[in-house]
Amino acid sequence: EIAKAKKKPAEARAVIQIGIVIGGADGDFDASEQAVVREACFALDLPPHEFDL
Predict the structure, then answer these.
(1) DSSP secondary structure letters along 1-53
(2) What is the pTM for the complete model shown?
(3) Are 35 and 10 in contact (CB under 8 A)?
(4) Is 23 in contact with 33 (CB distance < 8 Å)?
(5) Closest listed residue to residue 1, CA positions, set 11, 48, 52, 47
(6) Which residues contact 49 (CB under 8 A, 6 or more apart)?
(7) Max CA separation in the chain (angstroms)
């Protein structure tokens, strides 16, 4: 589903930023949560390092 945002860079980045916010909502953006968001970056053709992942 998230791949639908792939053609729209602003939306793709928003998807990743939302994932980061949700992952850190409990105060701890742990390694497994980071890995999921990193996978989303790859699905959207965004470099994970752009989001410090």
Answers:
(1) -GGGGGG-HHHHHHHHHHHHHHHTTTS---HHHHHHHHHHHHHTT--GGGGT-
(2) 0.88
(3) no
(4) yes
(5) 11
(6) none
(7) 32
* Contact between 5 and 17 (Cβ < 8 Å): no
Give the residue among 13, 11, 18, 50 at the shortest CA–CA distance from 33. 18
The answer to whether the beta carbons of residues 36 and 48 sit under 8 Å apart is: no
pLDDT in tens, 6-40: 999 999 999 999 999 999 999 999 999 999 999 99
Structure tokens at 50: 């752009």
